[in-house]
């Protein structure tokens, strides 16, 4: 099934006039270790601009001042403050781990700590280097409400064992069976696909103007925010629509930009979402 504008209109609806930030979820984003500080900032920017009620970032202590300067709407804690990190893992509704996390022993310790303290009521989104850390595990069974994976083709090869030329919807769906029930896979490529069990969406938007670092971090932040909102839609629909909107904004911007920076996508998210809401009311 191809994702289209009508799917967006079903998901992105006007907010209740009586709502408050607590109605739109608390996302904890973990990553941005040296030298990848920008990755978690881009994920957080997308998450805030996509409407998450609260965003907390666990990152390098040296990265916090940059984050506070560029995105004062997000809270920030040191990734090395384990007691505080555990507290926020327990408080958050959704945990996004991986953008700029790295793959060294420190990153492994943070990843293991996070997995250890997850509970069955959490949504967990694993992205970037955390996907490679997950691939080293003996089992992929994680005790959470829903697991969302956002690998590019090489990362999915490490997780699934499927060579890139074998990565089709049928094979991908078979490989998802080794993950927790209802795991959602966003298989990123030039034609990104979103899968969960027998459910399947394919993306027809996007192009080479998105070939720049930080694009996946921005997508992860958007997915995290969408997952926390729009209670009348399923989580699978929300993930698919966040993925669609990410590429649709980039495609629209490419009419005037040879290359579309991820941060430019983020700055255009609120405008694009409002346009969809207004079209619903017309």
Note down, in words, how this protein is organized.
It is a single chain. The chain contains 11 helices and 9 strands. With about 280 residues, the protein is an alpha/beta fold. Helix 2 (about 35-50) packs parallel to helix 11 and helix 6 runs parallel beside helix 7. It is globular and about 50 Å long. The relative contact order is 0.17. The model has no long low-confidence stretch (mean pLDDT about 95).
What distinguishing features does this structure have?
single chain; 282 residues; alpha/beta
Major sheet size, sense and barrel closure: 9 strands, mixed
Backbone structural class: alpha/beta
Uncertain residue ranges = none
Q: Please state how the strands of the largest beta sheet are arranged side by side.
A: 3-2-1-4-5-6-7-8-9
Mean pLDDT: 95
Shape: globular
Radius of gyration, in angstroms, nearest whole number: 17 Å
Order of helices and strands: HEHEHEHEHEHEHHEEEHHH
What separation lies between the terminal Cα atoms? 27 Å
Q: Assess the beta-strand content as a share of residues.
A: 5-15%
User: How many helical elements?
Assistant: 11
